[in-house]
Amino acid sequence: MLYTEKVMDHFTNPRNVGKIEDADGVGEVGNAKCGDIMRMYLKIEEGIIQDVKFNTFGCGSAIATSSMATEMIKGKTVEEAMTLSNKAVVEALDGLPVQKIHCSVLAEEAVKAAVKNYYDRKGIAYDPSLFSECADCDHGCCH
Amino acid sequence: MRIYADNAATTQMSQTAINAMLPYMDKIYGNPSSLHSHGQEAAEALGQAREVVAGHLGCTAREIYFTSGGSEADNQAILSGAMMGAAKGKKHIISSKFEHHAVLHTLENLEKQGFEITLLDVYEKGLVKPEDVAAALRQDTALVTIMFANNEIGTIQPIAEIGSICREKGVLFHTDAVQAAGHLPIDVKGMNIDMLSLSAHKFHGPKGAGVLYARKGIPLTNIIHGGAQERGKRAGTENIPAIMGMAAALEEACGSMGPQTAYVTSLRDQLIAGLSKIPHSVVNGDMENRLPGNVNMCFEGIEGESLLLLLDMKGIAASSGSACTSGSLDPSHVLLAIGRSHEVAHGSLRLSLCEHNTKEEVDSMIQTVPQVVDYLRSISPVWDDLQKGKADYVIH
Ligand SMILES: Cc1ncc(COP(=O)(O)O)c(C=O)c1O
């Protein structure tokens, strides 16, 4: 099997799939040209992520990492969500094939993009270096 | 119900092929190069297999070289054509954009060694134009290599026309017939084919066995050096069981080709008609010149690997040309060659049928595939944007 049981579980029964119409922050990363796009919706009250939903276009691991990332940040503070690393997502899934690691990076970036959007909407000041843009984009694919 | 719809990747061995192999494992196990009777019995069997294969290609047994499969045959044919040309100062090779990697990567390697490669367009339908071959021919063209039928989209190339153009100009012509052998009539003499590759596991024979046909008088270049097997052109003790299985499988496939083509084509057309009802879907490749078992479609807004995995969970074995299944960032070079955008090419599905598939299986796929496509669209941000008019559909 290409994927671990955990990955298959999150791929076939993704948690928090869907949209939040009145989201406080929405982030989208990836590129359809490269075969994966993640969109993350956050509902935030008093600095706590009350609800999170995602939509993903992509392979099995893109869907599984999105699902796992949403589980890992739900109920957490925004600051805690910002510390979510792709490595933690991979570990929580009991590993990913090497060529799929970029999907986990995408999941981390999707969370950050949604938080950034939340900060922007609310006018909350932040350190822009926390949201470093991808430097060497080759036809739009970052990873 | 488990449905195997990936026959272009490989096929189930037929009982005929298995039965043909068995005696050569424990009863007739001699080395065909040995002088004793054990060896000579094996040599005789090998000779018979060579006759059978030659008979189905329309050549003589002396023009058949057994190899480890399609990839090796492609490599050796192209290398041989290149070396023959280079000896006369000809270092230009013509091929097409959508060849199998066994051809394309061999050509890339030759390019690094100073050969010039022209890759012809295959246009929207996935067909090479014979006039393009004629126009690309040069004084220094050493070889033309165009596949008989494409492995992803199943399009059948105008091989006889290309063959006659090459013969007229005295340029060597090789064809990768791995997807065609056992499925389409082949006549190397009538089609003016100088070299041809085939592989046993695509027509219910064993894996790891193939054939390179090379017309009498074409000096092959060795890839494997050693003993004098295969007229000195391919060293190594022959894989007799596999060769016997291959010959039996080819005989069986060619013997029943007519009715099987009719049956498999009808399944294919039902499947295509059923899946074409999925909104924003498109068939890849020409419908007229198409392998009997090939169905290849793109569904907008979804990605192929997730589609394959979900289909597999529902018991359907298929294939896709998405980047995630190709192991690179780019989707299938075949789909890009016929002009599909990256976005659309990621959402491709190949279902390849054979005579073991049934009408019930086709009906079941017509039920299941749309469900899975619908589900993946329901969680896809790309589809969401298309539905809301924030992006334009590419497939109408
Ligand atoms: C068109 C084509 N050429 C070459 C090959 C390689 O054949 P083999 O797997 O026997 O090396 C294949 C099969 O994968 C093929 O479809």
Query: How far apart, in Å, are the first and last alpha carbons of chain B?
Result: 33 Å
Rg over alpha carbons of chain B: 22 Å
What small molecules accompany the polymer chains? pyridoxal-5'-phosphate
- Second-tier CATH architecture of chain A: Alpha-Beta Complex
Which sheet architecture does the biggest sheet of chain A show? 3 strands, antiparallel
Percent range for helical residues of chain A?
25-40%
Using a beta-carbon cutoff below 8 angstroms, give the protein chain pair with the largest interface and the number of residues from each chain: A-B, 26 and 24 residues
Structural class of chain B: alpha/beta
Tally of structural domains of chain A: 1
Contiguous low-pLDDT stretches of chain A (5 residues minimum) are: 135-143
- Can you list the strand order of the major beta sheet of chain A? 1-2-3
Short description:
The complex is a heterodimer of chains A (143) and B (396). Chain A has 143 residues and is an alpha+beta fold.
Short key terms for the protein model shown above:
heterodimer; A: 143 residues; alpha+beta; Sufe protein. Chain: A; three-stranded antiparallel beta sheet; 5 helices; 3 strands; 39% helix; disordered C terminus; B: 396 residues; alpha/beta; 15 helices; 42% helix; globular; binds pyridoxal-5'-phosphate
Descriptive overview:
The complex is a heterodimer of chains A (143) and B (396). Chain A has 143 residues and is of the alpha+beta class. Chain A has one domain (5-128): Sufe protein. Chain: A (Alpha-Beta Complex), CATH 3.90.1010.10. In chain A, 39% of the residues lie in helices and 19% in strands. Chain A is built from five helices and three strands, in the order αβββαααα. Chain A has a three-stranded antiparallel beta sheet with strand order 1-2-3. Chain A is globular and about 45 Å long. Chain B is built from 15 helices and twelve strands. In chain B, the strands form three sheets. Chain B has a seven-stranded mixed beta sheet with strand order 2-8-7-6-5-3-4, with helices on both faces. Chain B has a three-stranded antiparallel beta sheet with strand order 9-10-12. In chain B, strand 5 (141-145), helix 7 and strand 6 form a beta-alpha-beta unit. In chain B, helix 4 packs parallel to helix 5 (101-112), helix 6 (130-136) runs parallel beside helix 7 and helix 9 (257-275) runs parallel beside helix 14. The model of chain B has no long low-confidence stretch (mean pLDDT 97). The A-B interface holds A 11-12, 14, 17-19, 28, 32-39, 55-60, 62-63, 99-100, 141 and B 301-303, 305-306, 309-310, 313, 322-324, 327, 329, 331, 341-343, 346, 379-384. Residues 69-71, 74, 100, 102, 147, 151, 176, 178-179, 199, 210 of chain B line the site of pyridoxal-5'-phosphate.
